[in-house]
Design brief:
The complex is a heterodimer of chains A (about 140) and B (about 500). Chain A has 5 helices and no strands. By secondary structure, chain A is mostly helical. Chain A has one domain. In chain A, helix 1 packs antiparallel against helix 2 and helix 2 (about 35-55) crosses helix 3. The longest helix of chain A has about 35 residues, at about 105-140. Chain A is elongated. The mean pLDDT of chain A is about 90. Chain B has a domain at about 340-490. In chain B, strands 1-2 form a two-stranded antiparallel ribbon. The two termini of chain B are about 40 Å apart. The mean pLDDT of chain B is about 90. The chains are: A mainly alpha (about 140), B mainly alpha (about 500). The interface between A and B is medium-sized, with 20 and 17 residues.
């Protein structure tokens, strides 16, 4: 798709906004529609659009496979680690109330935001990884 | 909360967080060490849980502190405590062997992720066993299944990819059936908590959706447990997967399927409904015994020994299905005990295959020529585990068969008891074929060449357990007895 100047220019402008919108969906998830999964998908979409237009080589320069794998792992570690943190603080696994000893509701809020962030990072990573793996196979051929 | 109270969550959470940490390590050696530690911690937790359950009765753990009916509850009774010990114990015994095992049998580009996938599969299976929430069961089923497909595909043989794809398609169909069944039951009861669902189902049990739900769940678990004739994914998957993966799955994956069947039939739908009203015994017993006979006969004709073991698994799962289908106290004990015992022997036999492949590169009949002199320890393990597979007294196999036959007699079906004994006699043929080739043919020239200790020791440990637990049955039969009484026994 690299030969179409219109596509190239539009995508170049759009990609940052797509990524920003993903962050909006991520953070706004507890007030409106959205959340970690949706945000992760949108974030990955940004990377995928960039790859389709500018080619796998430039995409891998921007987002190396090792970084993508790290995202996949870190999201899950963040999620499960939150569970371990609540256990260390004396609550059940993923009982966010103990995250803030003074105000359990605030603790619940914080906990949800953290684990949704973990979900978002992992989903973005997994979708990008699946796409890149298949795209690289094709590029090699 | 004390550490002891946190154990149910840690049982699943430790391998679950271990998996991504393993992936981040990158170096296979480091990941292996970490995975071994995680597997042994998990095993220690499951043993502690089993002891606690036997002392103080079922444990209830609420995730996130939400009330049991609203949130996800983990409920541990003797039945799933025993399954947890089996699954995590097999992982703890097999994981140390993977360091050298993966160098021979796993494709190079997947090696750094092997232990991640193994821990994910472990976490998934433990999650299935421990949870008291029926949807959570499905989620863990997907986690363990997806990791299993990846592990099978890692086999060095190019056919492994195709076997994994076949496994993926059938496994997904099975999981979908289970999900549809869960959905229908949820539609009629409005709850996902197993105990709550069990309390509400009798009120709506005459409705078509609930009847369909039981049928869907039965078919789905039959595919996952590889009950004949839904077993076709298994022979290829176990033949082409890395042998250590076959050892772990042969010992655990189909057993988890059988556990799901037991749990959903007894603790959710209720034995009275499933066996009394819906008569699923009429499905399970004929299919189970047909599988036992057909699997054993097909196993006799196999050239590749891993495929032979896979067909033998079809037969053994058939025994378990038939035992569940008899729906009496002894049948339940037979099913639970055989889940555990068959895990031990099949794990041992596949570890023997791993040893042979380590030295000879393949595990067909030819390569077993004269192996009794060349690899005495390995072949010794094969003989012990093989005798147990046949059901010779003083091995674990005998205990399972004993209860199986006595449950068939209790059900008043003595011809079926003869079928069970007959199928066991076929096992003599396929085990003897190998023993004959290994001990009574001249070995090809070459000195004694035992497999590395790291592979042989786990096999020896499992064989020792086959005999020890065949002589002292307190652990298996004792726990199974308690579990069977708690589940309610006969309808």
């Amino acid at each position: 798709m690299n030969e179409f100047i219109l596509v190239r220019v539009v995508v170049k402008i759009m990609v940052p906004f797509i990524l920003l919108f993903a962050l909006y969906v991520q953070m706004h998830g507890d007030y409106g529609p959205g959340g970690g999964f949706q945000a992760g998908v949108i974030f990955a979409t940004g990377i995928i659009v960039y790859t389709i237009v500018f080619g796998i080589r430039r995409a891998v320069e921007a987002v190396p496979m090792s970084a993508v794998m790290a995202m996949v792992c870190c999201g899950l570690i963040l999620y499960a680690g939150t569970g371990f943190a609540t256990m260390a603080l004396g609550g059940e696994y993923l009982n966010y109330s103990v995250l803030d000893s003074a105000d359990p509701v605030h603790g619940q809020h914080a906990g949800i935001i953290i684990i949704e962030l973990g979900v978002g990072i992992t989903v973005a990573g997994v979708l990008t990884a699946v796409f890149l793996v298949f795209a690289e196979r094709r590029a090699r051929r | 909360m004390s550490l002891l109270q946190q154990l149910p969550a840690l049982q699943v959470a430790v391998p679950l967080i271990g998996a991504p940490l393993c992936a981040l390590m990158g170096r296979p050696r480091l990941a292996w060490m970490f995975a071994v530690v995680v597997a042994w911690i998990t095993f220690a937790i499951s043993v502690a849980l089993l002891e606690h359950v036997l002392d103080a009765g079922p444990i209830h753990y609420t995730m996130g502190g939400w009330p049991e009916i609203l949130g996800i509850a983990y409920v541990i009774d003797p039945l799933n405590a025993l399954v947890l010990v089996l699954v995590s114990g097999m992982a703890a015994i097999i994981m140390p062997a993977t360091r050298i095992g993966i160098n021979v049998e796993v494709v190079h580009r997947a090696r750094h992720l092997f232990h991640t996938m193994a821990l994910l599969a472990l976490a998934g299976m433990l999650g299935i066993a421990i949870t008291g929430d029926i949807f959570n069961l499905y989620v863990f089923l997907e986690i363990s299944s997806l990791a299993s497909y990846a592990l099978v595909a890692m086999g060095i043989d190019r056919r492994a990819t195709r076997a994994a794809f076949h496994y993926l398609v059938q496994g997904t169909i099975g999981a979908t059936f289970i999900l549809v069944g869960i959905g229908l039951a949820y539609m009629m009861t409005g709850t996902l908590n197993m105990a709550d669902m069990a309390a509400r189902l009798p009120g709506v049990s005459h409705t078509a959706p609930v009847q369909a739900a039981l049928a869907f769940v039965l078919i789905g678990t039959a595919i996952k447990a590889a009950i004949f004739p839904a077993h076709s994914w298994m022979p290829n998957a176990y033949t082409y997967a890395p042998s250590l993966v076959s050892a772990f799955f042969g010992a655990t994956a189909t057993k988890i399927g059988a556990y799901m069947l037991l749990r959903l039939v007894y603790s959710v739908f209720g034995a009275d409904y499933a066996f009394g009203e819906m008569k699923i015994g009429w499905v399970l017993v004929p299919l189970g015994l047909a599988g036992a006979v057909a699997g054993s006969i097909v196993a006799v004709w196999q050239h590749d020994l891993r495929r032979m073991l896979a067909y033998s698994s079809v037969a053994q799962v058939g025994y378990i299905a038939a035992a569940i289908g008899f729906a009496n106290h002894d049948g339940l004990i037979a099913a639970i005990v055989h889940v555990f015992n068959h895990g031990l022997m099949k794990g041992a036999l596949f570890l023997v295959m791993a040893c042979v492949i380590m030295r000879l590169g393949k595990a067909d009949m030819e390569s077993f020529r004269g192996l009794g002199r060349r690899m005495p320890l390995t072949m010794g393990c094969f003989v012990v585990a093989g005798l147990s597979m046949i059901g010779v007294p003083a091995t674990v196999g005998f205990i399972s068969k004993w209860y199986l036959v006595s449950s068939a007699l209790d059900a008043g079906l003595w011809p079926l008891a003869l079928v069970i004994v007959g199928a066991s006699l076929i096992a003599v043929i396929y085990i003897w074929r190998v023993v004959d080739v290994a001990y009574f043919t001249d070995p090809p020239p070459g000195a004694r060449d035992e497999a590395p200790a790291m592979l042989v020791i786990p096999a020896v440990v499992l064989c020792a357990l086959c005999i020890v637990l065949g002589v002292t049955t307190d652990l298996t039969v004792g726990v199974a007895n308690t579990a069977a009484r708690l589940l309610g026994g006969a309808p």
